[in-house]
Amino acid sequence: METEVAEIKRIEGEYRKVIVNKQKMSEKKSENEMVMSEFKMLDDEATIFKMVGPVLAKQSLFECKDMVQQRITFIEKEIARLETLETEFQGKVTDKTNAVKKLQADFQKIVMQAQQAQAAAQQ
Length: 123
Fold this sequence. Notes:
The protein has 2 helices and 2 strands, in the order αββα. The protein is mainly alpha-helical. A two-stranded antiparallel sheet has the order 1-2. β1 (48-52) and β2 form a beta hairpin.
């Protein structure tokens, strides 16, 4: 039973990590969506500079929009993957918790039977 409880704690730890990563990815997605909306407000001929080390490098608006859209797509896929993991971990924790509850119930039954047998033997 101790190994089951330890396994539940391990899974819950991994589950927490998945939740934190999912939150971070959601924040990044929001940031990138804001950047994309700002890009959409610009004229097609607007000059955009990107910080590359200590230098500002000129980039086209099309390249920037494409890069941000690729990032958003990647982040959406990552969020979907993390949601799948989250669901799997929830299922595993539920299964393990049910297994521990069953073990406890079985143990209590055995104890009750032993107490009844002992009481019957004393009479």
